[in-house]
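Quick question, first post here. What does this chain look like in 3D?
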Amino acid sequence: MTSSVSERRPEIAPVARRSRGRIATTALLVLGGAFLIVVGIVQSIADRPAQVAPSETAPHSIQVRARLSGITPGGQTTGFGVAPDGSLAIVDRGRQHVIRFDAAGAPLADWGPGFESGTDALDLNGIAASGSDWYLLDRGGPRILQLDASGRATHSIDLQPLATYGPNGLAVDARGDV
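> Answer (accepted):
Ran it through. Tokens below.
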């Protein structure tokens, strides 16, 4: 009887082969995953931007802050724009004025609050340049004023029909579209 029992035992070899195959597949997946993690770490180190010493950038930012810190009393600047010639305009919401500077930062003009005859600005918020013209957002109007190089309104775009609520910015593309 013992010989018949030993003959009936199932073979263990196919199961062992399948287990070895699964172990080998799992090992390859683990090694592949580890390889990808190492590659990711190396890539993140290689793509890291170069470190810039504070001494290389601080004088410029300090100079700009020192030049522009006293322009708008109370710190109510709500927009700025740069013209193609490099001149700059800053919106002073507290006084409802626009302050213009040349490309070197020297003051050129102080416009406002009256940009159109008989109408003062109510809530200036943004400014953008196109050529020699400037576009000024008056949220209280609500309107966009087109200003010439002297700060006089040459055109007004009424925003009331658009039912906008508190626009917070203004941009002009290269074609002059607002």
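Residues 40 and 46 are 10 Å apart (CA to CA).
The beta strands are 77-82, 88-92, 97-101, 107-111, 114-116, 119-120, 124-130, 133-138, 143-147, 153-158.
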